[in-house]
Amino acid sequence: MSKKTTNSRALDAGLLTLRVAVGATLFAHGAQKLLGWFGGPGIDGTTAGMQHMGFEPAKTSAVAAGVSEAAGGLVALGVGTRVAAAAGAAAMIAAADVHRPSGFFAQEGGFEYPAVLGLASAALALTGPGRYSVDAVVKHPLSREGAGIAALVASAAGAAGVLTRRKKALALKVG
Fold first, then answer.
1. Could you read off the pLDDT of 30-40 as tens digits, one per residue?
2. How far apart, in whole angstroms, are the C-alpha atoms of residue 93 and residue 118?
């Protein structure tokens, strides 16, 4: 076995490990928001939380956040990885912004945790899932590098729009 083959297999194993960890974590958070699984609030509780945080319309925001995170299940399996990972990155951009006023560290309520999940998701959108994935087997057009870049740009733009709307809604509550 050549060194290149060994390095390639190690890279693919690393991507598989990253996909499963990030994807399963995102899925669990999405399932909490949408379905109330794993001790989560479900859609009604998430909607109330979104309203409290200034996301309007709150229910649409709750569903979008839950679906974006639940797409992590696809990331874990390596199905639609680039697009699903981009969706997860967008959800984490919004989550990090909510936590930003509390500083960096998670134990102080900071943005550390969503930032790491978001950046790992963005990395997967850029790199793709690796050889050990459904995407590698089916070679769907959305598995291509350009699709990941486009999905990441679109997701970041969408997150920016949501956050702009949130800041306006919060300013109206204060004013």
1. 999 999 999 99
2. 6
